[in-house]
Amino acid sequence: MHAGAGIGSSIGTRRFLARDAHRVVGAHAQPERRQSAGRGRLRLPLAREVDHSLRVNETATDVLVIGAGPSGLAVGGRLKQAGVAFELLERAPKVASRWRDHYERLHLHTFRDLSRLPDHPWPLGVAAYPSRDQVVAYFEEHARKNTLRPRFEREVTSLRREGARWVATTRGPHGDERWSAPRVVVATGYNRVPNRPRWPGDEGFAGRVMHAAEYRNGREWLGKRALVVGSGNSGAEIVLDLFEHGATTAMCVRHPTHVSPRDLFGVIPTQVLGLGLGWLPPKLFDRLALPMTKRLVGDLSAYGITRPERGPMELLQATGRVPLLDIGTVELIRQGRVTVYPGIERFDGAELVFVDGRRAAFDVVVLATGYHAALEGFLDGVERLVDGKGHPTAFGEEHPDAPGLYFVGYRNPPTGAIHDIAKEAVRVAKSIADAATTPATTTTATTSSGTTPNATTSGAKRSAADPADSGKKPAADPADSGKKPAADPADSGKKSAADPADSGKKSAADPADSGKKKGART
Ligand SMILES: Cc1cc2nc3c(=O)[nH]c(=O)nc-3n(C[C@H](O)[C@H](O)[C@H](O)COP(=O)(O)OP(=O)(O)OC[C@H]3O[C@@H](n4cnc5c(N)ncnc54)[C@H](O)[C@@H]3O)c2cc1C
After folding, report:
1. CA–centroid distance, residue 189 to ligand 1 (Å)
2. Helix/strand/coil (H, E, C) string of 404-445?
3. Which of 315, 337, 371 represents a domain boundary (last residue)?
4. Which residues does 90 contact at the CB level (< 8 Å), separation at least 6?
5. Please, is 421 exposed, middle or buried when counting C-beta atoms within 10 Å of its C-beta (0-12, 13-18, 19+)?
6. Fewer Cβ atoms within 10 Å of its own Cβ: the N or the C terminal residue of the chain?
């Protein structure tokens, strides 16, 4: 056991030995696997935990969590607190690897206190919209505080149901390994694989084409001609970055796009609008919100940015496209310092030809064209679990078509992805912990994370060996967990506009819940 092993691990192990002779814990495990995380001790497998007839190199636990980004960390933290044993599998060598890899200029587009993991307030002194490095440090601190010990450099290459368990196969420097559990939380992110559109002639382009995922900064493009394709938040910020680095910058806006200032009247995060009014029917929401953003942003059609016919909430629900939260790009466009082009028709040598017939030469084209969750890359039978965009059709609860399978983090709602990740994680962890609850038991078992499970005092959690046994429907309201966050943003002197992540309250203002489950550009 590792990342979050708690009381459930010892009880779960015993239970599995009695019931499931085909399972093995540590039969051929490397010593590292039995490491008592946090104390640096090695715990060798107990004889009674080993069945030498069992599969080589398989670790059995109660829950597998795949991905140590914000979603996996949030779930891990909550499972840990509930004393549920789990393994956290991560392909990268560190937590929050995607955030580390994003371009350097990146800041949260959503308000700090509305973008936080459960029970983990932002430190004092961090700006309202923290930088990428601050975001990474925040996630690192969450993992440290919760003594999470992800299994790094384990890329899940296959996840399938075998009998009553989910079996993950990983590859990496540790070799091929198998991990199994009755429950699995998939938290590999909706931005797993960059979406790279192709155009006629692009293979002969004289300049460079890169996805936003590869873009680091604009230094090398000083004095060069750059085009950013895509009008999501990443695209708009990369435009700013290139401009600030002295590139002649243009933006390709392929679709009509809603634009809002990031802060209404310069002070209120637009995200608050989504939270406050998001419970309204989309048409009504749009009728109220649109006049305000129109007034604040004005008509940009003369510059090449038109408004969609549908309002922002309706559009989000239909297509998953969130409005662009402007942090200065629009002003550059208005000033004529950034040119807007429509869709690309084709590449032609060093030039691009646009659908309106204009053509222009570029040295670099940055594709801020979004990502795919690409769950089909490892999840067996995924077709019946996802929508047309490849996003899970259920999240924040057990998938109705796959016992023991949970997804967290596959939405990009107007309330902010991290905001909703926190809520989903609370619900999922509670659902899993509820299914695993047994009468109070006292144990002195040393967990692999080196912590004393809180479950010893508050009612032990055992491993839910078979989710089918539980028959439990996840609680709709995470507030039921009755868990008071360790700290609250209010403590910082700043009253957060809303913090459903902690209160666990099913916020009425959760438009994403009511809508189609589609991700979007960032
Ligand atoms: C550029 C950008 C800016 C964003 N800005 C904001 C913002 O301001 N506010 C906001 O609320 N949201 C924002 N988001 C959206 C969202 O909050 C982030 O994408 C967030 O990181 C999602 O967390 P996650 O854990 O679900 O996914 P990820 O952060 O993508 O983490 C998934 C983890 O799973 C691992 N993984 C993937 N596949 C495997 C595998 N097969 N085996 C093992 N491990 C695997 C990855 O290495 C990664 O560590 C932004 C997204 C992007 C791309």
Report:
1. 5
2. CEEECCCCCCCCCHHHHHHHHHHHHHHHHHHHCECCCCCCCC
3. 371
4. 67, 68, 72, 97, 150, 151, 152, 153, 154
5. buried
6. C
- Count of structural domains, the chain: 2
Atom of ligand 1 nearest to the CA of 234: 1
How far away, in angstroms, is 238 Cα from ligand 1 center?
A: 18
Beta-bridged to residue 325, according to DSSP, are: 260
* Domain housing 81: 1-23+39-194+372-522
Distance, in Å, from the CA atom of 16 to the CA atom of 24, rounded to the nearest integer, reads 9
- Within this chain, do residues 330 and 435 fall inside the same structural domain, yes or no? no
432 lines ligand 1 (CB under 6 A): no
Q: Is the pLDDT of residue 45 over 50?
A: no
Inform me whether the pLDDT recorded for 305 exceeds 60. Answer: yes
Which of 371, 389, 405 marks a domain boundary?
371
Ligand 1 lined by 89 (C-beta under 6 Å): yes
In sequence order, what are the beta bridge partners of 348?
351
CA angle 406, 421, 271 (to 5 degrees): 150
266 and 359 assigned to the same domain: yes
Q: In angstroms, how far is CA 222 from the centroid of its own chain?
A: 33
**How do residues 387-439 score in pLDDT, each as one tens digit?**
988 999 998 899 999 999 999 999 878 788 999 999 999 999 999 999 875 43
Say if 221 falls within a structural domain.
yes
Work out the pLDDT band at 10, boundaries 50, 70, 90. very low
Does residue 463 register a pLDDT over 70? no
E strands along 57-154, which residues?
A: 58-60, 63-66, 86-89
Is residue 386 domain-resident?
yes
As a whole number of angstroms, the distance between CA 246 and CA 334 comes to: 18
Please state, for a pLDDT cut of 90, what percent of the chain lies above it: 58
More confident position, 149 or 10 = 149
In which band, very low, low, confident or very high, does the pLDDT at 211 lie, cut at 50, 70 and 90? very high
**pLDDT value for 321:** 80
- The dihedral of CA 148, 83, 118, 212: what is its sign? positive
What is the CATH classification number for the domain harbouring 103? 3.50.50.60
Closest Cα partner for 242 from 261, 260, 262, 216?
216
DSSP string, 304-343: T-PPPSS-HHHHHHHH-PPPEEESSHHHHHHTTSSEEE--
CA-nearest residue, atom 12 of ligand 1: 417
**Whole-structure pTM value:** 0.78
Single-letter amino acid, residue 326: D
